[in-house]
Amino acid sequence: CMTKKISGAEFPLAKIFSSDFDYVIPSYQRPYAWTQVQAGELFSDLYDFYLKEDKEDTYFLGSIVLIKEEGKPPAEVIDGQQRLTTLTILLAALTHRATGQIRDAFHRYLCEPGNVLEGLSQKPRLTLRERDRDFFKRYVQDVALDELMAIDPAQLDNESQRNIQANARLFLRRLESAFAGDSQAATAFGGFLVQRCFLVAVSTPSQQSAFRVFSVLNSRGLDLLPTDIIKSDVIGKVKPGLRETYNETWEELEVETGRDGFAEVFGHIRMIYAKEKARRALLDEFRERVIDQVPSAEELVTKVIEPFTQAYLVAKNAQFVSTSNAAEVNTLLRWLNRIDNSDWLPSAMCFLADHESDAEYVHWFIRRLELLAAYMHLCGYDVNARIERYARVLNALEKPHSPAQPVTAVELSDHEKKNFLQHLEGEVYLMTARRRNYLILRLDSFLSDGAATYDPSILTIEHVLPQTVAKDSVWAVQWPNVADQMRWLHRLANLVPLNQRRNSQAQNHDFERKKKAYFGGKQGVSSYVLTTQVLNTSAWTPAVVEKRQKDLIDVLASAWSLR
After folding, report:
1. Is residue 247's pLDDT more than 90?
2. Which of 106, 235, 288, 377 could link 28 by a cystine bridge, Cβ 3.0 to 4.6 Å?
3. Which pLDDT band holds residue 202 (cuts at 50, 70, 90)?
4. Span 143-153, mean pLDDT?
5. In angstroms, rounded to a whole number, what is the distance separating the alpha carbons of residues 544 and 497?
6. What is the DSSP secondary-structure string of 520-550?
7. What's the CA gap between 158 and 436, in Å, rounded?
C-alpha cells in the first residue's frame, strides 16, 4: 500500500492562483517552451468557450502534478509549468489593460500582496527556474509589459525568455482584437477565467510518488517521450546541489542526438543490458533492466547514459577520431549504417564506450562487426536470429577483453563463413533489392579500394546476359545451352550496377550494343568498377562469366576473410 498520501482536487483558477499555493519550478525541469502556437490555441479555446451561451458551464484545463504537503502552500511543480506560466502571462496581459480596483484585483493572481496579520510576505505566486526567475518577476508579474515589448528579442538571454515575450505580445494582440476599448467585457472575460476555468491539482508530499503520478498521467497520451519520464525520475534522484549540472548534461545529449535519436539510444542501452528482444514498453524495461541495476542516479548519467550516447553519435554519424585508421573505421561505420536494421548498434556502442581510445583495437572490432552485420543482412536473418547472435557479442563484451585477448564472439564461425559463401555464390539477383544492392556496392567498394562513394538512391542492378534470350539474337548463338543461361543469369558475375533508370528496350540488345548504349552512360564510362570491367570485356560467353564469377567470389572471400 502507499503510505504517501496522494490527493487530487479540482480548483478554479481563483484558488490555483491564491495564497493556498506557492509554486516553484525546480531547476531540473526543462525551460518554458510554449510558443505562440500553443499559447494561441489556449486563448482561442478559452475565448470560444466564453462566447458560448451557457454561462454556468465550466472549462477544464487539465491537471498539474505537485510535490506539496497538505495544508502548506509550498508546491514544487513536477508537471504543469507550461500551463501555469502561460496562464500567468495571460492574467498579466489582462492586468496591463485594466485600471484602478479591477487592476488590483487582477494583480492579486500574479503576486501575493502580503498580509502582516496572516504572516504572508509579498511575493510572486509562481517562481520560475533560476535563470528566468528575475526576468519573469520584473516584466510579467510586476506588469511592465510595455517595457517587455520594447526589448529586441535578440537581446534576451535565452529561448524561454523569447517565448515569454512572444506569448505576452500575442495575448495583448488577441485581447485588443476581442475587446478593443471595452473594459467591461474584458473584466467579464477575466471573471470567467478565474471562476469557471478549473485545473485538477494532484499533490503528494513525496517526490517518488509525484514522479509516479506524473508517469501515469503522461502514459495517457500527452506528447512526452519515455525519455522525458526517465529524466524526471533520474534527475529527481540526483543530489539537489548537482541537479542543475546533471540536467544540463542531459539536455545537451538530447540536443546532440535529437529527441527521436535520444529515444533510440535508450532502446539500445536497454538491449546492452537485457541482451534480448524487448517484451514490454521501453519505460518499464529501462527501469527494470537498467536503472535498477545501477547504484545511483549520478552514475546512471555519467557512466551509462553519457558514454553510450557519445558512442552512439560516433557510430551513427561515422565520426570516429584518432590519429591512425580513423578513415578506415568511419568507412566501415558508413557501411554498417547502410544495413536496413540497427541491431548492430548496441554492440558498437558497448565497444566504443570502453575502448574508443585504442584505435587499432577499434579497427579490429568494427571490421568484424561489419562482416557479421553484412553476413546476417545478406543471408536474410530475421530479427530474432539477429538479436540472439548479437547477444553473444554483448555477453562477451562484458567480460574482460583486450587486443591480446580480443572478443572472438564477433568473428564468424567456420559454419557461418561456409553459409555466407554459399549465399554469395548463389542467385543473388533474387535477394530483396536492399540486400542485393548492398552486396553489389560493397563488392564494388572492395574493387575500387574504398575510393568510390555511392548514391544508392539511383542504383539499378542490370543483367548483362538478358533475362529473355530471343531465338534469333546474337545471345542465342553465344549461349546455345539453356541450362547455362539459367545457371548464370542471376549470379554475381552477370550483374552490373548502373546509375540510371532501367531501360527496358536496351535490356535485350546484343553485348556490343548494350555496352555502348547502356552500360557506359553518356560518356561511355561508368562510376562503378564492376561495370567498367564489363565494358572492357570483349565477349560475354559462359566461359567468361564462369571465370569472372570465380574472381569476384575471391575478392569477397579475401576482403571478408571467408576462407
Report:
1. no
2. 235
3. confident
4. 96
5. 18
6. TTTTT--S-HHHHHHHT-S---HHHHHHHHH
7. 50
Quick one: pLDDT at residue 2? 46
Q: At a CB cut-off of 8 Å and minimum separation 6, what does 515 contact?
A: 534, 535
Closest residue by Cα to residue 330 from 308, 355, 359: 359
The pLDDT assigned to 271 comes to 97
pLDDT digits (tens, 9 = 90+) for 360-394: 999 999 999 999 999 999 999 999 999 999 999 99
Q: Give me the percent of the chain exceeding a pLDDT of 90.
A: 65
pLDDT at 229 over 80: no
Crossing angle of helices 183-196/100-107, nearest 10°?
A: 30
- Other CB atoms within 10 Å distance of the CB of residue 197: 19
Largest CA distance in the chain: 111
For residue 9, give the H/E element and its range: strand 7-12
| CA dihedral over 473, 476, 479, 483, signed as positive or negative | positive
DSSP string, 350-367: HHHHHHTT-HHHHHHHHH
Distance CA 111, CA 138 (A): 12
Task: Report the C-alpha gap between 424 and 556 in whole angstroms.
Answer: 9
Residue 87: the pLDDT is: 97
The region of weakest confidence among 229-238, 241-250, 543-552 is 229-238
- Cα gap 510→146, rounded to integer Å: 81
Dump strand ranges (E) for 123-243.
123-124, 126-127, 197-204
Q: What b/e string do you get for 307-337 counting C-beta neighbours within 10 Å, with b at 16 or more?
A: bbbbbbbbbbebebebeebbebbbbbbebbe
Give the SS3 label for residue 10.
Answer: strand
**pLDDT, tens only, 346-368:** 999 999 999 999 999 999 999 99
Burial class (CB in 10 A: 0-12, 13-18, 19+), 12: middle
DSSP line for 450-462: T-----GGG-EEE
- Name the region of 495 (left: φ>0; alpha: ψ -120 to 50; beta: rest): beta
DSSP assignments along 261-296, one per residue? HHHHHHHHHHHHHH-S---S-HHHHHHHHTGGGSS-
Contact present, 211 and 236 (Cβ < 8 Å): yes
**CA neighbor of 495 nearest in space, from 538, 461, 534:** 461
> How confident is the prediction for the chain on average, in pLDDT?
89
Q: Contact 160/183 with Cβ under 8 angstroms?
A: no
What pLDDT shows up at residue 522? 55
The whole-angstrom separation of Cα 314 and Cα 353 is 10
Sign of the CA dihedral with 96 first, then 97, 99, and 101 last: negative
Query: What single letter denotes the amino acid at residue 479?
Result: W
SS3 of residue 120 by DSSP? strand
Instruction: Output the pLDDT for position 218.
Output: 58
Cell, residue 297: 542516479
Among 501, 372, 495, CA closest to 431: 495
Q: Give the whole-angstrom CA distance, residue 143 versus residue 22.
A: 19
If pLDDT is split at 50, 70 and 90, which confidence band does 220 have?
very low
